[in-house]
Amino acid sequence: MDFWIIILLLSQHSQITGNLDNAWATHFLEEAEKLNFDQKVLKKKVNTEHLQHRKILQFTIILVSAKDFSKTSQQKDIELINFCYDILHELENKSCALPFKCIKKKDMIIKHPMDLSTINLKLKNNQYKSLEGFEKDIRLIFCNCYTYNEAGSEICYLGEVLESVFNKKWIEKITHQVKQRDELKRVRDDADIESEHWKKQCRILE
């Protein structure tokens, strides 16, 4: 479960618990007043209990966040690899990708050689730490294609076709990722609002 989803659930739980707790405390003080108990002492006791409950909830949130953040780096790596693999497989499955799957020995004059097989190997070895690194290698393939082959040649044409496929897929994936990030931010903002509402409820009896 996503970190912010967990926080949201905790926040919603705390709001419900807080509302019930406040209702109980108010009723308790009203009944105590009827019995002529010392209101000052009782109110202090109720506030102490509220504070203790709040500390317990905060501690729970800290434990959850620490556990999830320990997995954040690994999760990001997995998401990065999956993102890149989706695009790579899309390119590899195109018939126009054949000349770019593996560099031939006669093409070793290329100063900075790059092909789809090398990118695949780098993904398997977790060598990409960012999307920019992956994109740079993909675009290096096309750059080499246009640099070391005559304009208008068949291989340049195939390179243009494959680059067009890459650009379309890249934009689609990036757009989808941005939408997911915006949705996550919305959930996070909602969680912050719920948390602030709970804090205000807890301050009622303070």
UniProtKB/TrEMBL annotation:
Compartment(s) where it occurs, according to its Swiss-Prot or TrEMBL record: Nucleus
One example of a Gene Ontology biological process annotation: chromatin organization
Cross-referenced InterPro entries: Bromodomain (IPR001487), Bromodomain-like_sf (IPR036427)
Keyword Nucleus tagged: yes
Signal peptide limits: 1-18
GO cellular component: chromatin; nucleus
Keyword check for Signal: yes
Stretches assigned to the Bromo domain: 109-156
Keywords, comma-separated and alphabetical: Bromodomain, Nucleus, Signal
Top-rank taxon: Eukaryota
Full protein name: Bromodomain-containing protein
Organism: Rhizophagus irregularis
